[in-house]
Amino acid sequence: MACGSRKETSITQNNEKNIDQAVKYATTITAKDLGMHLFVYASDEFKGRETGEPGQKIAVKYIKDFYVNHKIASPMGGDDYFQEIPSAFLTKNSRGKKLKDSENVLAFIEGSEKPDEIVVISAHLDHLGIRGEKIYNGADDDGSGTVAVLEIAEAFKKATKEGHGPKRSILFLHVTGEEKGLLGSKYYSEHPIFPLKNTVVDLNIDMIGRIDARHKENPNFVYLIGADKLSSELHTLSENINKKYMNIDLDYKYNDENDPNRFYYRSDHYNFAKHQIPIIFYFNGTHVDYHKDSDTPDKINYNLLENRTRLVFYTAWEIANRENRLVVDKTEKR
Ligand SMILES: [Zn+2]
Question: Radius of gyration over alpha carbons of the chain, in Å?
């Protein structure tokens, strides 16, 4: 009896080992689910999600409800998923423009072996609001990143429930005030829920649902920015993971120090990078609908959004589960 059952166990373990668990959970991230969320999140009902305004409150409720429904916890505990940011902080940092109270939304999966080491996956939840008669839906900017983070969280939660949860902890960070000057991420970096010294990486997603003019002919691409700036290891890992699982054309055009767009400094990851935390910024470049009321969910390429979301998931999976913490071997310079 004992002998027989031991044998069965070892066969089961072998089978388990042969299945790449990362693939199993990545494939739960689908174009269909991403689209289902984005057609709601970037609808007129959300009024362009301007920081502190009624549409942004609808947005944070949508994100919170998602985590509650999927039983993904808040790092603050209980029912409180919001990191409140007072009007005074936002206004002080917005070049004088008066802004109302706003909030980041945070959700958390605790690591099974190194729970104190935190992998952050971020996207900004806000957009430009309503100007005149026009509602700025911000489907690509950054509805695409927002729904990507939700789907990645759901995949990690499913893995956790089935006994394959990440070894390091994962913080799903939806920041407000990006369009007002990276304010939500600035607030988080100055009032972190987990010590920044224990924060291993920030994978930041801002616009991953579209194709820019440069890639019309070969649309299976994404721009990567910042991967090699603080950790050579992160860049290599990211390249290898892409080769192993996705084979997306990784374009480093905007990673060039001399690129006049300076995108490295222009989204929320920079508030981590300036504290010596390695980052990768995932981005599809600008396009004709960028910061216009025509950035709508019908124009998103959902298959590309799926591919890019899966790439971020695989990269996060590797960073969270690998033996050693990413090594920081370079310093941030401005
Ligand atoms: Zn954006």
Answer: 20
CATH number of the domain residue 151 falls in: 3.40.630.10
- Is the Cβ–Cβ distance between 230 and 276 less than 8 Å? yes
CA of 144 to the centre of ligand 1 (A): 10
Q: Which domain holds residue 43?
A: 20-321
Kindly tell me the sign of the dihedral angle through the C-alpha atoms of 82, 169, 143, 290. positive
Q: Say if CB 70 and CB 161 are below 8 A apart.
A: no
Encoding tokens for residue 253? 């055009």
Residue 327 covered by a domain: no
Ligand 1 centroid – CA 169 distance (Å): 25
Does residue 305 belong to any structural domain of this protein? yes
Q: What is the pLDDT along the chain (334 residues), one digit of tens a residue?
A: 445 444 444 444 545 556 799 999 999 999 999 999 999 999 999 999 999 999 999 999 999 999 999 999 999 999 999 999 999 999 999 987 899 999 999 999 999 999 999 999 999 999 999 999 999 999 999 999 999 999 999 999 999 999 999 999 999 999 999 999 999 999 999 999 999 999 999 999 999 999 999 999 999 999 999 999 999 999 999 999 999 999 999 999 999 989 999 999 999 999 999 999 999 999 999 999 999 999 999 999 999 999 999 999 999 999 999 999 999 999 976 5
Whether residue 213 lies inside any domain: the answer is yes
pTM of the model: 0.94
Cα 256 to ligand 1 centroid, rounded to whole Å: 20
Instruction: Please report, in angstroms and rounded to a whole number, the separation of the first and last CA atoms in the chain.
Output: 67
What distance in angstroms lies between residue 18's CA and the mean position of ligand 1's atoms? 39
Would residue 247 count as lying in a domain?
A: yes
Q: Give the strand order in the sheet containing 82-85.
A: 82-85, 102-109, 168-175, 114-124, 199-205, 279-283, 221-225, 249-251
* Number of domains composing the chain: 1
E strand residue ranges, 82-193: 82-85, 102-109, 114-124, 129-131, 134-136, 168-175
Instruction: Give CA angle at 175 (177, 109), nearest 5°.
Output: 170
